[in-house]
Write a structure and sequence with these properties.
Elements: H1 2-20, H2 27-32, H3 45-50, E1 56-59, E2 62-65, H4 69-72, H5 77-92, H6 112-125, E3 130-133, H7 142-146, H8 154-158, H9 164-167, E4 168-170, E5 176-179, H10 188-192, H11 195-205, E6 210-211
Parallel strand pairs: 3-5, 3-6
Antiparallel strand pairs: 1-2, 4-5
Length: about 210
């Protein structure tokens, strides 16, 4: 009787733990929650170690963040994952293809910068005129990845303190331009959600195929 009771309690504990555990570990977990997965990107550590394991790597005379593997090693499995992501996005909206894409997450350090940079590189390699905007106005980081000055940037243009030509920076990658965050404002959410920002995105779509 004791053994059966212990077994029953053990089984009950397992089911209870599974029920209250809301963490997502696999693609199947996402699908069970009703999400459509576009792709999965593996850990970059092994690929970066193959390139020397440094945080910055030189290519064509420029220092590039090691996480920009779609540029540093276009034949890597990581780059192929981002190509699958691009293809999935293209097929997700056949009637009205997406031209403006935002990447966000709930917490810092979850890969927003890495994802949007590599996706932008893939679009640029595909011949799309692409512009990459740093709209993380609390802890901007895109300028570090491409080793350019952060200011003047997006917020300076929105405030009328800089021209569009002042904030667009060329990157070593053909078809890819960069707009850094600029001066960090006291109200990041209101700045990103402003009408000026919406008008700015409309203006960018006149000059670029993809706005990320």
């Amino acid at each position: 009787l004791g053994a059966m009771l212990g077994l029953g309690l053990g089984i009950g504990f397992v089911f209870l733990r599974e029920f209250i555990d809301v963490r997502v570990r696999t693609l199947e977990d996402l699908k069970k929650r009703g999400y459509t997965t576009l792709t999965a990107v593996g850990l970059m550590d092994d690929e970066i170690r193959k390139l020397g394991g440094k945080t910055k790597l030189e290519k064509d005379g420029e220092l590039i963040d090691a996480h920009l593997l779609s540029y540093l090693n276009p034949l890597s499995s990581i780059a192929e994952s981002y190509r699958r992501l691009r293809t999935s996005i293209q097929y997700a909206q056949l009637d009205a293809p997406a031209r403006t894409i935002v990447v966000t997450s709930a917490n810092p350090g979850e890969g927003k910068t890495t994802t949007i940079c590599n996706l932008a590189i893939i679009y640029a390699h595909d011949g799309k005129r692409t512009v990459l905007l740093d709209t993380d106005l609390r802890k901007p980081n895109l300028h570090n990845g491409f080793k350019v000055e952060r200011m003047p940037g997006l917020t300076d243009f929105l405030l009328g303190n800089a021209l569009l030509s002042d904030v667009i920076r060329k990157t070593p990658i053909d078809n890819l331009d960069l707009i850094c965050s600029g001066t960090v404002p006291p109200n990041p959410s209101e700045t990103v959600g402003s009408q000026k920002m919406k008008d700015f995105l409309i203006e960018l779509r006149k000059h670029y195929d993809m706005v990320l």
